[in-house]
Amino acid sequence: MANHLQYREILEGAEALSAEEQETLVQVLKSRLRERRRAELAQDVQAAQKEFAEGRCQPATPAELVKEILS
């Protein structure tokens, strides 16, 4: 519940900004989200490389991958 109140306060604070400040805020948030996604992707790649190096990966065809995903 505290998170919800904090979110509402943030939205209200953003509405108090000028249009230019709101645009800057949006740009900053988008940039931070991109950086977070990049960091998560880098972690995923490192984990996959480690699994491969440890021999825990098995070759699979695209059809096998789709079948596994859908099951």
Give the helix/strand class. mainly alpha
Tally of discrete structural domains: 1
> How many strands in all?
0
Identify the overall geometry: elongated
Mean pLDDT: 94
Order of helices and strands: HHH
Number of helical segments with 4 or more residues: 3
- Helical content band: over 70%
Instruction: Supply Rg.
Output: 21 Å
N→C terminal distance? 36 Å
Beta fraction? under 5%
Which regions contain 5 or more consecutive residues with pLDDT less than 50? Answer: none
Overview of this protein structure:
The chain has one domain. It is mainly alpha-helical. It is elongated. The protein has 3 helices and no strands. The longest helix has 35 residues.
Topology summary:
Layout: H1 2-15, H2 19-53, H3 62-70
State the gist of this model.
The chain is an all-alpha fold. It is 82% helix and 0% strand.
Give keywords.
mainly alpha; 3 helices; single chain; 71 residues
